[in-house]
Design a protein that fits this description.
Elements lengths: L1 E8 L3 H9 L13 E5 L9 E10 L2 E14 L4 E6 L10 E10 L2 E10 L5 H24 L1
Antiparallel strand pairs: 1-7, 2-3, 3-4, 4-5, 5-6, 6-7
Length: 146
Amino acid sequence: MDVVATLDAPCAPSDLFPWIDDLARYPEWLDIVPRSVPVEGKEGDAGPSWSVDLRGRLGPFARAKRLRMVRTASDGEHHACFERREHDERNHSTWVLDAEISPVPAGSRLTMRLHYGGRLWMPVLDRLLADEIERSRPRLLACVAR
């Protein structure tokens, strides 16, 4: 499953990027991420790592998940990519979050792409993410404006 969301922000890309490049900041603006903390890197990690809790409820459906995410790409200005990298020898569903910020005449455009390769969240994930994206937009803009 792939979800794509965009946000136009009245700020420079350099003001928006720190809120996207560090998963530890996501709980400040994204309710489905109530916790995200840096964790020790492991051999083979391409970049810094976080333990990320995801939690969502849609009607009678509720799901919670803890993922170990690693930043696999970052140019320090416009692009960051995070991928699930567990080190427990089990087979896990793929999670990839790719974020790109581009300048536009009124400021910046953030495009986030989430790829989820599992089935557990499928009945509720589309709706949950769509609702959360709408609610998170003003919170992210308020964080950037501080």
